[in-house]
Specification:
- The chain is of the alpha/beta class and 471 residues long.
- It has two domains: 27-140 and 276-378 and 446-470, Rossmann fold (3-Layer(aba) Sandwich); 146-267, no CATH class.
- 38% of the residues lie in helices and 15% in strands.
- The protein is built from 16 helices and ten strands.
- The chain has a seven-stranded mixed sheet with strand order 2-3-4-1-5-6-7, sandwiched between helices. A three-stranded antiparallel sheet has the order 8-9-10, with no helix packed on it.
- The protein is globular and about 70 Å long.
- It holds the Pfam family DUF463.
- This is YcjX family protein.
- InterPro entries: YcjX-like.
Length: 471
């Protein structure tokens, strides 16, 4: 494993030197990673972002758009022929149809290249013609992102941490009962191994649907062509005292290390480590609705995930000797259109507090970070209603599934984020002084004027922070 890591490092260094040597003679490229946990809205974020960069009428906070520096933007083939193309055309067709519907979530890695013709500004701008800047957007499942935290854990530690975390969850009752009748020190039986892996996968599927964030290994939920292979046939067990070489424990230990070596490490090496701008999408409202333990689970999962980033500035020498660094990281709380705008600052403050530990580490390393509340596609309108003599800010939209119009008030988020994070840290089962509701809205039918992309909330601010400086 040590020699493999050294070889990987040498290969990356050679590639970086080659890239840097040719970069003065090629068009600049921005590699934007779009990551997040399940249901955070990665697919809709990319689709709306691209649509609003192609037609920039709703992007006043993106300076290169408002000043006219962007002369034109267009899609073209991505540079990597081995990665599937992000299916932008199908997704935007779904969102802009007469009866719009949400596109399917991310199930594999994909990429899209959007190129800009940009007029330089400054004293010499009149002497220079437009230049081309490429934005390569890399989309991958949030479940794969969670696996990066496994790189620092061996099988024993992962098993202990996982079992401790799920022992109080009702969703894990069946699996915990299943391993009670298993002797990990007994000789390997493949039918037993398959049954355990299937039982644990069933738990992960239910846990993800219930709003839990840390559901590793991520490929158990999205196996692809690895389904049924030994590399996906293991599960967490209680460690026996003296497991033999041919025991169930030792075989699961070997398969866990194989999973890291053949699944997690190539993803990190080939894709994740090449990103220089990053947006992390977080469904904070969904976690709050699920309760304090779900909020703490999300906080811990994001801390593990962001520990895998290599934040800092991309100087010439640092890229040769330390690899590409993530220069800017945006933490975006999605579905802001589910709240009246008066509550958006509170949602942003909660997001900042939730990610405080990881954000401080990134700031210390030299990366620029920011938290925003956004809606990639606005599905609601705002209104006020009278309730017991008070005005309540509500949102109106079409309910997902029925299409019926509804007005929704989710409850007041607290001004002080500690009112949520304190009970989350202490493991409270429910919120003591409030109930926070969540509702699923269908996309609203759109009528777009020429030059306008889909309606959104602060997508232009997100774009300006992530790559506006490079335009």
């Amino acid at each position: 494993m040590v020699f493999t890591s050294i070889a990987d490092g040498i290969t990356r260094s050679v590639e970086q030197v080659s890239e840097l040597a040719t970069s003065p003679f090629t068009d600049p490229v921005i590699r934007l990673g779009v990551t997040g946990l399940s249901r955070a809205g990665k697919t809709v974020f990319i689709t709306s972002l691209v649509a609003n960069l192609l037609d920039r009428g709703r992007m006043p906070q993106l300076r290169a758009a408002s000043t006219g520096a962007i002369r034109t933007a267009y899609l073209q083939p991505q540079p990597d022929d081995t990665i599937p193309r992000f299916d932008y055309e199908d997704h935007i067709a779904r969102l802009t149809a007469k009866e719009p519907n949400w596109p399917e979530g991310t199930r594999r890695i994909s990429e899209l290249r959007l190129s800009f013709r940009v007029q330089s500004s400054g004293l010499l701008s009149g002497l220079q013609g437009p230049r081309t800047v490429h934005l390569d957007i890399v989309d991958y499942p949030g479940e794969w992102l969670l696996d990066l935290g496994l790189m620092e854990k061996d099988y024993a530690q992962w098993s202990a941490d996982t079992l401790k975390r799920i022992e109080a969850r009702g969703e894990a009752k069946d699996y915990l009962g299943q391993i009670e009748g298993i002797d990990p020190a007994a000789e390997l039986s493949e039918p037993v191994a398959k049954a355990l892996a299937a039982g644990y996968t069933d738990y992960l599927t239910v846990a993800r649907a219930r709003g839990w964030s840390d559901c590793t290994p991520g490929r158990f939920l999205l196996p692809g062509d690895l389904e049924g292979s030994p590399v996906l046939t293991f599960a967490p067990l209680r460690r026996p005292e003296n497991p033999g070489r041919k025991s169930l424990w030792r075989e699961f230990e070997r398969r866990y290390e194989s999973y890291k070596r053949h699944v997690v490490r190539p993803f990190f090496r080939d894709h994740f480590s090449r990103i220089d701008r990053q947006v992390v999408l977080v469904d904070v409202l969904g976690a709050i609705h699920s309760g304090p333990r779900a909020v703490e689970d999300m906080r811990a999962a994001l801390a593990d995930i962001l520990g895998a980033f290599n934040p800092g500035r991309n100087s010439f020498l640092s890229r040769i000797f330390q690899g590409r660094r993530v220069e800017r990281i945006l933490f975006a709380a999605t579905k802001a259109d589910h709240l009246h705008h008066t509550q958006h600052p509170r949602l942003t403050a909660i997001t900042e507090a939730l990610l405080r530990d990881a954000r401080d580490k990134a700031d210390f390393a030299g990366a620029k970070t920011r938290a925003l509340s956004i809606a990639s596609l606005r599905t609601t309108t705002e209104a006020e209603i009278d309730h017991e003599g008070e005005k309540l800010g509500v949102v109106r939209g079409r309910l997902l599934g029925t299409g019926k119009p509804a007005a929704f008030y989710p409850g007041d988020l607290p001004e002080d984020p500690a009112r949520l994070l304190a009970p989350a840290r202490s493991g409270e089962a429910k919120w003591l002084d409030a109930d926070y509701e969540v509702m699923s809205f269908a996309p609203a039918p759109l009528t777009l004027a020429p030059g306008e992309g889909p309606p959104h909330i602060r997508l232009d601010r997100a774009a300006e922070f992530l790559f506006g400086d490079r335009l």
